[in-house]
Amino acid sequence: MIKNIVVFFLFTVALVGAEVPRVALPPPGPSRYYIHVVNGLSKLGLLVHCQSKDDDLGYHRLLNHGDDYQWNFKVNFWGTTLYWCKLETPHAYVSFESFWPEQQHLWLRDRCKHGT
């Protein structure tokens, strides 16, 4: 009787162990990210200032249509890298987050050109 209970118990443990759901891991992100800011304004110069908590990239003037500024970086160990930019013309400005790590979705990747 005890032998049957032991066999049943071991069989149950083996069956439950075989049914452990596998967690789907997201594909690894790129080792390096590239940010590319382009002046798409027809006749206005653009002043660009981008930074993270630890890295101020300074001010850059994009004077003509098509001028660009770019930089690249790796996400920090904790996955909390965040960059933001302020773009200014003589009469207006906009400030926005230009990079944040996407852990759950591919939103950022799908809206950017591959490799840029």
From TrEMBL:
Subcellular location: Secreted
Main location: secreted
Keywords assigned by UniProt, alphabetized: Secreted, Self-incompatibility, Signal
Coiled coil: none
Lipoprotein is among the record's keywords: no
Pfam families: Self-incomp_S1 (PF05938)
PANTHER family per record: PLANT SELF-INCOMPATIBILITY PROTEIN S1 FAMILY, PTHR31232
Family membership noted in the UniProt record: Belongs to the plant self-incompatibility (S1) protein family.
Protein's recorded name: S-protein homolog
Organism for this UniProt entry: Cucurbita maxima (Pumpkin)
